[in-house]
Structures are given as structure tokens and as C-alpha cells.
Amino acid sequence: MKNFIEEVSSRRTFAIISHPDAGKTTLTEKLLLFGGAIRAAGTVKGKKTGKYATSDWMEIEKQRGISVTSSVMQFDYDGFRVNILDTPGHEDFSEDTYRTLTAVDSAVMIIDAAKGIEPQTIKLFKVCRMRGIPIFTFINKLDRVGKMPLELLAELEEVLGIESYPMNWPIGMGKEFLGIYDRFYNRIEQFRVEEEDRFIPLNDDGEIANNHPMQESGLYMQALEEIELLNEAGNDFSKERIADGTLTPVFFGSALTTFGVQTFLETYLKFAPEPQPRHSNNGPVDPFNEDFSGFVFKIQANMNPAHRDRIAFVRVCSGKFERGMSVTLSRTGKSMKLSQSTQFLADDRSTVDEAVSGDIIGLYDTGTYQIGDTIVSGKSLFQFDPLPQFTPDLYVRVTAKNVMKQKQFHKGINQLVQEGAIQLFKTKYEDYILGAVGQLQFEVFEHRMKNEYNVDVMIEHLGSKIARWIEGNTVDEKLSSTRSMLVKDRFDRNVFLFENDFALRWFQDKNPDVKLYNPMDDR
Ligand code: GDP
């Protein structure tokens, strides 16, 4: 039995960030397989379906194959307890996707070797950067022909602005993929070679010492040359720089063929951070402190249509959660008993009785919680720092179909906005503009307004816009136009919604005195 300190130190909590189709599901499955959490691959639900009906939120989930039960996956490996948090992609990409990254201690970034760095990866990467968390890179699909490895490293640096240290290096690719040269373990791991012969040890010069057919291969020679280049001109390995998120260790592999995955997992566990202290208005909160504390990073509605319940996902930041314990919601000072909690494994919902710092628990919620809420078991009612604000990309104008339903309309909007799924803006004519980072949010909004507040809404799509806040918040209303619409956010701050990049630049040229900013840029 581990004691509390050992329990907390064994936690490794991360999310996988990637563009759809890079191999997140496949890699997750393989990791779960190693951890023994699932019996066979194919258990983690895919999300590859076409049209869906909006008649029922649960129905949306079913038809789209969004797996709500795989929101959090947990397994044990080599004395560690690993928590993988799902970050939905495609159209179900939402603010929750971003916010999930506030609940992890590190991230694994998967890149498709043929496609390189794609848009969604960039967005998610930025959020990790903002938080300064370590990022581990897995370059996937080496069993297919992709970009040259040196080119991929250059992309990491140029597109993402992060330096890299390749932990291993591919020898060939596609049909000629022979394996990886492992700089970290000083060995070669051969592709599609039986278990006991899989590894070829290297000598102190980093070359194959004993006679081996691999030595005859031009691809091996080429890999050696490239590694020499990396040794001379590449970055040095630095545990500290990995920890502060300025250097990403890079692993090559093929999730589909389970190649390079175990080595990746073992090395990841060596360098990934244990639960880290978290800032609050009472100073940093130590994860090894025995008083329980946690914060709500996501609220999922209607997971069970029979109960219309919501689940508040809480990241445990200190102490131990025990079923039935009493906690206080810092925002309201209200005490409550946490009797019903749930934890999500790959396939079914199972109830959790105990969780420590680093773990995620799901609490049944009847409207008590808001995104960002802190719950504590101790006397001090501190609150964790507010969650960052994410800039929406898509906008709609929304009105109630029936003017008699204004009251319900406002109530519904205000509650849904508080949940954090959508952001609300108002024009000076009191028009309601909603912003979201993903299209599905609007459909869920429409559906919930009807089902939970009995209001039919009319949605007019405004398309994508670039939102910019204004330093000092003072602005001349006359600068508002159709291409640069001036609105107020729900904190009464002025925001311009620009038609496109061109409109933004034109505006900046004409009005150099108006200093614009995007809360999501590094600040
Ligand atoms: P996700 O959208 O990121 O979750 O991606 P999936 O894991 O669903 O993978 C997308 C597609 O890529 C699927 O058809 C996978 O079988 C395929 N795939 C994943 N990993 C590999 C790999 O290592 N090699 C090859 N050739 N295909 C892969």
C-alpha cells in the first residue's frame, strides 16, 4: 500500500493534442493496452460518422460516436497511475477542449509524419504554451512515407517556435522503415522484428558494435549521418528545459503497428511531471497538502437522458477525495456532501471512492457548479486563479422566435453562458451575439434552449470573425462598421469583431492609437 505522498508522486496526468486523424485514438488505445485498462484495441470509441440529428443531445453523442465515457482514462503502469484526458476534435472542438488543458500537468502532441503540423495542433499547442507545461512530441505513421525527419523538426521550430530534442530517430520510412535509432537508450529498435531480437545495442560511439546485417544498409548510414548532425548542431538534452516547456522531446513511431509506443511511454513517464502546485488567491497550493481542494474545468450536460444530469469534472489539486466527504464551494461558501461521484474508464462508468492530487473526478451536478469553481475541504475558502479566457472563432446572432418568451430566453442564455460553453456579446442595439470555438456548440445551445428552457431560437450565422479586445477599454463608437463590429463582452469590455485578417490589418493601419489585443496570445 502506498502512502499519500507516494500516491500523489505516482500520478501523471496529461492530454493528447493533435489534429484529427493524426492518430490520437490509436495511440490512446495502445497506451491503454499496455496499461491493461482495456482488453483489445477497438474499445475506445471512434468518432467517424456523418450526419446527425439534433433531436436529442444524447442522440447527437450516439450518432456522432463522441464517447463521453472516455473523457478520462486511467491506467497503472510500472508503479505510475496515468490519467489521460480526452480533448475532442472535429466539430465537437469546443472551449472544453481548451479548458481540459488547464487540468493536466503535461501534454503529448501527435504529429502525422506526412502532414506535419496542422491547424488544430497549433491552437492546442498555444494553450499549452500559455500554461508553460511540458510537451512531448510523438511523430506518427512512420510505416508510411512522410516528410523528412529533419524537415519535421524544422517545422516544430518555425511553426510552433519550440526547440526539440529527438529522443530517437527513424531509420528509413514507409516500406523501407527499418526501425528507430534510440539516442536515449543507446540502442536500435527494429521494426517488425520478434521480441527478443528487436533491440540492437550500440557501442560508446553510438554505432552497432557486433556484426549485424543492418550495418550494410544505406538507410542506417544515412540515419547515422543525421544523428551526427544533431549531435553537433542540434539542441542539448535538458531535463530542466523539458520541464519548463521550452524543449520538446521528440519520439518517432507508428501507433497503428504499436511500434515505438512502449519506449515512448516508458521515457515519457521518466520525465513527465508529477502533479504541480497551482496558484490561488491564497498563494500556491501544494499537491502534497492533505486538505482536499480541486477546481471544475468542464461541465458536461445530459450524459444520461433519463436523469438529465450534468457532470462537473474536477481536477484534484491537493489532498484526497473520499466519497461522502464534506466540501465547501468557495464562491458561495456553501457546504455540501460529495456522495455521488464518478470516474470514467475507457468503457464503462465506474464509481470512484478515492482520488488524490492529479486525479480527475466527475461530480453529479444539479446546477451547483460553474466552470472554474473551487471546492475545498479545509477552513480556508481560497479560490484557484480563474481559467483563461479563450477567443471564439465562430459567431452567430441569436433571437427568440417568440417575443413573449424574452424572460426565458435571457435566463437560458445567461445560464448557458455561465457554464462556459459559449461566450455572449451584445451590440449597442442589444443584439445578442454568441461566440464559440466550435460549430457544435451552437447546435447544442439551440437544442438545450428548447429542451431545458422551452424557447425556440433563431440563429443567424455570422461566420468566422477575429475578436480583439482594446487596451484601456476606451474607444470611439464611430469606428464600428460591418467589417469591424463593435460589441461588448459580458464583463462590459469593448471588443471588435473583424470580418477577416485583412479587415483587422486595415483597421490597425487607420487607427494606430487603438491598441488591440487577443487574450490568447502569449502575454
Ligand atoms: P484521431 O482522429 O487522431 O483519433 O486518429 P485515429 O487514431 O482515429 O487515426 C486516424 C487514421 O490513421 C486511422 O485510419 C488509423 O488507422 C490511422 N493510423 C493511426 N496511426 C497510424 C500509423 O501509425 N500508421 C498508419 N499507417 N496509419 C495510422
From TrEMBL:
InterPro entries from the UniProt entry: EF-G-like_DII, EFG_III/V, G_TR_CS, P-loop_NTPase, PrfC, RF3_C, RF3_dom_3_sf, RF3_GTP-bd
Keywords annotated in UniProt: Cytoplasm, GTP-binding, Nucleotide-binding, Protein biosynthesis
Annotated localization: Cytoplasm
Predominant subcellular localization, coarse grouping: cytoplasm
All copies of domain Tr-type G, residue ranges: 9-276
GO biological process entries: regulation of translational termination
Protein residues bound to GTP: 18-25, 86-90, 140-143
Gene3D superfamilies linked to this entry: P-loop containing nucleotide triphosphate hydrolases, Peptide chain release factor 3, domain III, Translation factors
A GO term, aspect molecular function: translation release factor activity, codon specific
KW rRNA-binding (keyword) present: no
Source species, domain of life: Bacteria
GO CC, alphabetical: cytosol
NCBIfam families recorded: prfC, PRK00741.1, small_GTP
Family per similarity comment: Belongs to the TRAFAC class translation factor GTPase superfamily. Classic translation factor GTPase family. PrfC subfamily.
Role summary: Increases the formation of ribosomal termination complexes and stimulates activities of RF-1 and RF-2. It binds guanine nucleotides and has strong preference for UGA stop codons. It may interact directly with the ribosome. The stimulation of RF-1 and RF-2 is significantly reduced by GTP and GDP, but not by GMP.
Name of the protein in question: Peptide chain release factor 3
Organism: Perspicuibacillus lycopersici
